[in-house]
Amino acid sequence: MYPLDNPIWQALTTKQASLAESCGQARRFIPEVSPLGGFAEDSAESYASLAILLRPGEKIGLFLHAPPEPRAGWDVVLSGDLLQMVYSGTTAPTPSADVVALSRDDVPDMIELAHLTKPGPFNQRTHELGDYFGIRRKGTLAAMAGERLRFPGYTEISAVCTHPDHLGNGCATALIRVLMERICCRNETPFLHVRGDNARAIQLYERLGFARRLEYYYAVLCRKPEPVR
Predict the structure, then answer these.
(1) What are the residue ranges in the chain where pLDDT is below 50?
(2) Single pTM value for the model
(3) End-to-end distance of the chain based on CA atoms, in angstroms?
(4) Tens digits of per-residue pLDDT, 29-63?
């Protein structure tokens, strides 16, 4: 399988293996880092392994190549179309100077912005996945973006979000350019994921040189409680 076809599994078995919990055919990130998990192939054995990693009532996020089907022991909490886009350019873009690096000290502001704008899951230790950058306006975190899935040759750009009061000011573009420049300078290829119905974001990414590569699905599953005996 091409690495980009199964990016969560690739990340959890290579560069981000130190942030993984594993059992049999499945792996997931430490919950404080990310709710994402994956497996080498979609099978009953893989879901059985995944169930061992989760407590009853706990949720897991997956990228799937087919819509999630009802499975014994699992509830589908959320699902939808997901588009994978990959940078198709050959040179790194020029970044903006109006950007600051974010650190652990910025986590409360990062979580607050993520909860407000909902770019995807963002937990207390999500910033440990890679580099994160932001733009502040009068002390307020107006926008941020960072790195999520990383494996040999590729780094995902994620958590791209802008405070509603600062939309339309080019903040997201500036942050993405910084990340693209850093990733390309490491001789890696930037890629990202976006909901299939987010036309505005898709247009922005296409203007920045990203091309549509793969249409698949995201799903949030919840492990059902054990039956009472």
Answers:
(1) none
(2) 0.93
(3) 42
(4) 999 999 999 999 999 999 999 999 999 999 999 99
- Calculate the alpha carbon distances from 9 to 1, 4, 122, 164, 207 in Å: 11, 10, 19, 34, 29
Query: Nearest 10 degrees: CA dihedral of 100, 106, 110, 112?
Result: -130
State which amino acid sits at residue 111: I
Please report the domains of the chain, with CATH numbers, ordered by start residue.
3-81+217-223 (3.40.630.30), 85-214 (3.40.630.30)
Looking up tokens 């049999």 gives 24
Strands 189-195 and 154-162: parallel
According to the 3-state scheme, what is the secondary structure of the chain? CCHHHCHHHHHHHCCCHHHEEEECCEEEECCCCCCEEEECCCCHHHHHHHHHHCCCCCEEEEEECCCCCCCCCEEEEEEEEEEEEEECCCCCCCCCCCCEECCHHHHHHHHHHHHHHCCCCCCCCHHHHCCEEEEEECCEEEEEEEEEEEECCEEEEEEEEECHHHCCCCHHHHHHHHHHHHHHHCCCEEEEEEECCCHHHHHHHHHCCEEEEEEEEEEEEEECCCCCC
pLDDT tens for each residue of 7-17: 999 999 999 99
